[in-house]
Fold this sequence. Notes:
Layout: H1 4-29, H2 31-38, H3 42-70, H4 72-92, H5 96-111, H6 113-124, H7 130-140, H8 143-159, H9 161-182, H10 199-211, H11 213-244, H12 249-276, H13 281-300, H14 308-325, H15 327-334, H16 341-373, H17 383-390, H18 393-417, H19 425-450
Helix pairs in contact: 1-4, 1-5, 1-6, 1-8, 1-9, 1-11, 3-4, 3-5, 3-16, 4-5, 4-6, 4-9, 6-7, 6-16, 7-12, 8-9, 8-12, 11-12, 11-13, 11-14, 11-15, 11-16, 11-18, 12-14, 13-14, 13-18, 15-16, 16-17
Amino acid sequence: MNSKRAWLVWGVGIFAYVVAITQRTSFGVAGLVATERFGATASALSAFTVVQLVVYAGLQIPVGVLVDRFGPRVMIATGAALMAVGQLQLAMAESVPAGVLGRIFVGAGDAMTFIAVIRLIPLWFPSRQVPVLTQLTGQLGQFGQLISLVPFAFVLHAGGWSHAFVSLAALGVLACVLSAALLRNAPAGTLAQKTSKGMRETAAELGTAWRQPGTRLGMWSHFATQFSGTVFVLTWGYPFLVSAQGLETGTASILLSLFVVVGIICGPLLGSWVGKHPLRRSSMVLAVTFVSAAAWLAVILQPGPSPLWLLVVLVLVLALGGPASMIGFDFARTFNPSHRMGTATGIVNVGGFVAALVTMFAIGLILDLINSSSGTPGDLFSLDAFRVALSFQFLVFGAGIAAVIIIRRRVRRSMAAQGESIPPWRDVLADNKRRRQQYKHEEKTRREDRK
């Protein structure tokens, strides 16, 4: 563990995940072009991403079971191949149904990637490194969003629709070849777990993972923190910034790029914090959720277009949701045995993407309803329409916060029954202060001894 080979395996997994994020987010910058190519309404435009996320979310639990059964290598390579097929289909599509079919393949391949890459980490690295590496995996993968925003957007506008999506298909083929050639499920000499479970045993394992309150706490943590940033990046952020807020396309791309920068900076810090304060993970989830809701409220209540600084703050806050959502996977890891971790991770990953697809579709539907009922139809992406449509997010924020609080109580009752209590914050802060004072005193004593 923690060898050069381990870092190579992790690196290949990261590359496959970067490619998956590129495939996932590419349609976010192609939305306006797709409206012209397919003559799509807002609802039809959201259907491209909603159907993709329905497939992604629907496959999370089956994929988690398959990862536990067949190992990460097969799943990552297969996922990359499916995404390549999907992008080729989209490159040739000339109608909404044909384009949606391509996104179905992309969603299926994307669904196989992240869970499998996360599954590699505890097999190749010691447990003390797992929280930080999990955060880094999630955030380094967001470089795929930069590929969507810069080189893919350039090819899309310079070379056209087909050339752009064929280039994404080529990336998928490369990820498939590298994964098949270089990935290994576990270090050499490790006793691999052979799973010969039938459907009944598999269903029992799934039920056991679901009944574990820690797994459900992870799912609702993912639900509350991840959805708003995902909706913003994948579908509605670019039209909102350009058409509603009146930003230049270059400025909007730079703002969306901040998601990656914030994730890379905050991800390891948050992972380190989780490692030091494992009993306070849900508090961080709630804090990030409340701040995200507050940022949206400030933007929506603006009487006109928001000042640039406020939009920057909104993007920075939403970007925190990515690192915070990774806490959900840490819940899955710590409350489930290793042989069930893929299944539990799949359950957790369902949360944020179900919230995202519901919100995404609802926003598109509300925009269409406002446009069709207005006296001057045609202003589909107006600021006033976006204010109403984006307010739907507060319902989802509220549901996520309530669920996290309720499930957290159950988890803490279960921990208390096993003799593990959660000390109040004042005791934790007092203990930290005592430790700092003790450390300073010891350092002072060492310096005096040297003299």
